[in-house]
Fold this sequence. Notes:
The protein is 41% helix and 16% strand. It is α/β, with parallel strands linked by helices. Strands 1, 2, 3, 4, 5, 6, 7, 8 and 9 form a 9-stranded mixed sheet that branches.
Amino acid sequence: xxxxxxxxxxxxxxxxRPQVDSCARESxxxxxxxxxxxxxxxxxxxxxAHNEAAFIGRTIESMLRQTHPPVKxxxxxxxxxxxxxxxxxxxxxxxxxxxxxxxxxxxxHSFPGKVKAFDAGYQRIRHVQYDIIGNxxxxxxxxxxxxxxxxxxxxxxxxxxxxxxxxxxxxxSSERDSFGGHQPASGQCQLFRRECxxxxxxxxxxxxxxxxxxxxxxARMLGWKTKSFREKRSIxxxxxxxxxxxxxxxxxxxxKQDYYLxxxxxxxxxxxxxxxxxxxxLVKGLALGLGYYSALLRRTPRPVSRELMAFHRKEQMxxxxxxxxxxxxxxxxxxxNALSD
Length: 341
């Protein structure tokens, strides 16, 4: 063989890269996701709904996008006179983990009515295997991984008893505009570790509302951690307390509720001053104060125990001292982290 021909045709052809089928890639991705979610706590949700036709479709669509859906979601139609039940019914056949209960129409659709509707849903999941139970209002939307994020927090901290995320609505952010801090978990989307839920006895039937606050505060008093996380947020499609009331009427009712739930008079003065700086200026704070001090003058009976009221007031005074110290030293007030765990 001549020098010119030596080696010709002896080189190996380049090795072709294996082609990965798109279906195989998708299957691998889904399996990875399943493995990631396999060890997460399971959860159930209950949604009381009365005349929520304007919002509940968006809430359901938000839940259908969840990366970690609940094992059971019970929606309780509390005697609606609109198309709430019809909207929910459209999703039942294709999503068997959603269940609809319809309660006959009755006159009470205030705060006790909501708790009664929740309890009706609770009866349907008592024998379901789950780790976490939660309330989700019918006018809420959340990120696709909202519940995956929250249940993962429960798995990371065995002391965490109640959890939620900050929420926003038109003109309001619970992270920015509230001095509730990171400890309360808003009742609009509020999750409980099952052991904590059973220890506190669930939501209490309170004629003026505040069942979510009492549940979370009782949990802290019993040694559980409660947390509102700011990494995720829910969107409240309707302003808080405005379902059947004006904003001013809602402020007056919240003032009465502050007294009714054992709030400290000094803390309420601070709240009045703070709310007076929000639009509508002065008026909202005045309505809040009228509600609180009218209940104080009438000595409205309180459903909270002395032990719970003392615990609540201690938290408020601790928070108030931190805020006043920041004001006196011209430091920025971090209202969200005013109280540590």
